[in-house]
Each structure stands twice: as C-alpha cells, then as structure tokens.
C-alpha cells in the first residue's frame, strides 16, 4: 500500500524539530541549513533581526554581503514561521528582486540538499517564494515604493509580517508612514538596508533620534574597511576613485557613515590657488587639446589650450593658454578664431573639443565643414556609458566636474592663474542624490537661486576629462585622414552605421 503523502508541513513530524532547533538561532540556521558562514558584521544583523518584533536599520558600504544575508533572513522567516509574509520594498522593485532572488536561489539549493523534505512544501519562482499549501498568504514577494506610488504598499497586514526595505535612504517619508502603519502585530519585523546617501529622512532618523535606547530601532553600521569580503586593494582603489577618505562619497559608500552634508561647493579657492602654481608631470604620450566653450551672447566664448595625458584617475592636464573672446563674437565667427588660434603647426595633432549642446553646434559644424578640422563634440547632459558610471554620476557634466575636482586635489591639473577661473571653480554647487550619484546644480538654478553666472572658463577644464587626444608626436597617415573623413561623412549624412 502506497504511503499517504503529507499535504501540510504542519503535519510533518520533522518540522517541529526543525523549528525548535533554528527559530531562535538564525546564525545556526545560516551555517547548518544554507551553508553560509556569516561574518561578524552579518552576525550582528542576524542577531538583531531574529528577535520578535525587531526593528533593525543597517547603514552599509560596499561588499559587506547585504544581498546574501537578506536572502538568508527571508528564507529563515518564511520557513520557520507558518503563515508568514515577507515583502521586499524598494524604489526599483525589479532590480532589487533580481539581486536578492539570485541569492535566494543559492540559499534554496543549499537548503534542499540538506533538508530535501522541505522542497515538497515550498515553491520558488522568479518573482515569489511561497508555501504550497497557502499561496497568497504564506508568501514572499517584492513591491515598489517609488514616489507617487506609496499607497500601493497599503493593505499589508499579517500576524507574521517581515518588511525588508532596500536602499532605504532614498525611500520617501510618506512610504515609511504607510509601511510602519501596517506593523500592528506583536511579531511584525522591519529591516532597513542602505548606503547612507543623505543626512535626513526616516532612514537617517533610525540611526539617530529613533534609535535605541530612546527609540525602537537597532542601528548597525557596516564599514567596508572591516569586511572580510573586501580586499585592501579594493579599499585603496576607492580612496583614489572617491577623492580621499574624508570625501562624502567615501564616507557613504565605504565607511557606511552619514556625511555631515551631501551638498556644497565643488572646490575651495585655496585648492585652486595651489593648482594654478603646481608643476605637473606629463606622461610621454601626451596630446594637445583645445577645449572650447561657446558663448550665447550673454556669456563669453573660451578657448583653453592644454597638454593632456593619461585617462580617468590618471589624467594629467597642464594649461598652456586661455583665450577669452568678447561677448560680441557669434558661434560662426568663433569657429574662425578657433581654426586660426589652434594651428596644427603650433600644436601638432591638436584635438578640438567643442561644447555642442546648444549654440556650439554651429561652431563645431563650421569647423568640420569649412575647415575640415577634427572635432570632438561634448554633450555633457547625456548619461554616462557604463553601468558603474551611471550609478556614480547623474550625467557627463557631473563626471567631468568630479574628475576635474580630483585632478586638482591630487595635483594632476595645472590651471591658469586668472582670478576669474578660480572664482568660477570655487562656486560650483554639487551634491549626492538619494541614490548615491553625484549631481551638479543646473546652471539656470545657479543663476536664479544663488546669482552665480555660468562658469565658462572652469567648464573648459572639465571638458578635458571627457576629451580624447592624439599623442603630439604620433604621425597621422593619409589613410587615417581618409578614414576620419569617411566617418565624418557618415555622421553628416545621417547614414545608419
């Protein structure tokens, strides 16, 4: 006679012993059930979250194992508490689900290899994890909390409810109001995970006035410098990339600390004064670059001729000349001036870099069509190309300014000695967004709110961080010129290449 299949896990005699062993010891669960050896930082989170009705807020830098630990806690709560409901909440529901679900699948595979009998009671799909006997009730899933959609979080009530909020620093106070309003039962838990991207908002408050002993929240700070999953090489690279250990970005993304402010001026006048006198060492294969900011009648047009070498965090810039034009010079006339001043006889293989987002389009086109000059067009309102850069910088303007800032601070950029340049560069408002990306205040707001005019001279130094260049001693062959002309014709004709 066939053995009768047990339909409910609650009727399985193995389940009682399983729950007894692991419900109140999630570190043991991580080690024995899913083969995860938690770091001392992860153990601190597990110890806090396993408490009934816990409120835990985790501020973290890179590489501390947040996603893997989140998956481990999700699966522990689901498996150990019958009828439980787990909701992962984030502004970007899909991206968060993809990240956590990858580790959830890893954890589930490890669990079923050790406790295969559990597999008959739970189903894991690409979007949900649920108990076979109570789908829609005993279930884990993800929800969005983007601004304007906060009310979608309403209606989540259960005796066993666990809310996990990812990138919590960027979640609105309205969304938190909706979520915390659902935590009405004794064992309703909430876990906040985020880089501390702003010194305000609900997430910030859980580490300050809402923290224990006065409040209910257990604040935990995970410093990447202390994580066993992060190499010294990585830390050193981030110190260089983020502009030093005291820069807001390093404090946020490595130390997991809230900076005193995430907004301010890009550079100090003292740093710029030093940059006007520094003696930079150029690499052997440096090239001439003329960065050109085109005025619109109110602003002056600028030509900045520099020697440029290296790339990104190794880029070196040495100013040779700055030519400021009268405001009466129109974009077409400016092209004539650029062609005359930037002769290849004086500056071999010089690359002309032109701001082409507005009136500069005419200048760049005139240089190409009339004088057959090699032009690199700058469109710094566009987003960066790589995913990593998109996370760090709102657009190319932010990238260029931050790279130029770091070049100044690290002695890799020599600027001209004009007080105009230093005045402009010391009055560039910038800040870090709620998602941890650098952003520059729009020029219209700079003018209207702070009465700061367009920083035309400083912009030309920022363009050097986006510029391509040809080594000044490289021989340009006829074949290379023909290829350049052919590509230029494709662009002008709008041919699909």
From TrEMBL:
It comes from the Bacteria. Gene3D superfamilies: 3.30.420.240, P-loop containing nucleotide triphosphate hydrolases. It comes from Vibrio marisflavi CECT 7928. This is Terminase. InterPro entries: P-loop_NTPase (IPR027417).
């Amino acid at each position: 006679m066939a053995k009768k299949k047990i339909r409910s896990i609650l009727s399985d005699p193995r389940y009682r012993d399983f729950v007894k062993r692991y419900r109140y010891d999630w570190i043991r669960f991580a080690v024995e059930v899913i083969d995860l050896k938690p770091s001392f930082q992860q153990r601190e989170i597990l110890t806090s979250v396993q408490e009934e009705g816990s409120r835990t807020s985790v501020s973290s830098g890179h590489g501390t194992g947040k996603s893997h630990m989140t998956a481990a806690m999700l699966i522990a709560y689901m498996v150990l508490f019958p009828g439980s409901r787990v909701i992962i909440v984030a502004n970007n529901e899909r991206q968060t689900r993809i990240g956590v679900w990858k580790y959830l699948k890893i954890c589930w595979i490890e669990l079923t290899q050790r406790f295969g009998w559990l597999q008959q009671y739970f189903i894991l799909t690409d979007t949900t994890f649920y108990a076979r006997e109570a789908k829609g009730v005993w279930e884990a899933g993800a929800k969005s909390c983007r601004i304007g959609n906060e009310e979608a979080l309403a209606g989540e009530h259960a005796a066993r409810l666990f809310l996990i909020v990812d990138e919590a620093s960027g979640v609105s106070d309205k969304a938190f109001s909706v979520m915390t309003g659902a935590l009405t039962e004794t064992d309703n838990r909430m876990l906040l995970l985020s880089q501390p991207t702003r010194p305000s908002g609900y997430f910030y408050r859980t580490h300050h006035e809402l923290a224990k002993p006065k409040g209910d929240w257990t604040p935990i700070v995970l410093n990447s410098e202390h994580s066993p999953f992060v190499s010294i090489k990585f830390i050193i690279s981030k110190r260089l990339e983020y502009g030093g250990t005291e820069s807001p970005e390093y404090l946020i993304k490595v130390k997991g600390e809230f900076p005193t402010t995430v907004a301010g001026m890009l550079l100090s006048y003292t740093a710029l004064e030093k940059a006007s006198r520094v003696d930079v060492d150029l690499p052997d294969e440096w090239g001439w670059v003329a960065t050109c900011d085109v005025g619109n009648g109110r602003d002056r047009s600028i030509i900045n001729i520099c020697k440029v070498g290296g790339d990104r965090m190794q880029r070196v810039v040495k100013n040779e000349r700055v030519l400021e034009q009268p405001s009466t010079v129109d974009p077409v006339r400016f092209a004539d001036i650029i062609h005359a001043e930037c002769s290849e006889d004086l500056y071999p293989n010089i690359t002309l870099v032109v701001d082409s987002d507005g009136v500069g389009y005419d200048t760049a086109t005139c240089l190409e069509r009339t004088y057959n000059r090699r032009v690199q067009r700058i469109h710094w309102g566009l987003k960066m190309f790589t995913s990593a850069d998109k996370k760090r910088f709102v657009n190319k303007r932010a990238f260029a300014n931050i790279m130029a800032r770091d070049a100044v601070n690290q002695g890799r950029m020599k600027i001209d000695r004009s007080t105009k340049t230093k005045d402009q560069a010391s009055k560039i408002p910038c800040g870090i967004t709620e998602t941890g990306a650098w952003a520059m205040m729009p020029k219209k707001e700079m003018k209207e709110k702070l009465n700061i005019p367009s920083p035309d001279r400083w912009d030309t130094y920022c363009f050097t961080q986006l510029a391509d260049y040809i080594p000044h001693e490289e021989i340009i062959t006829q074949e290379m010129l023909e290829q350049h002309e052919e590509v230029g014709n494709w662009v002008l004709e709008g041919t699909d290449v």
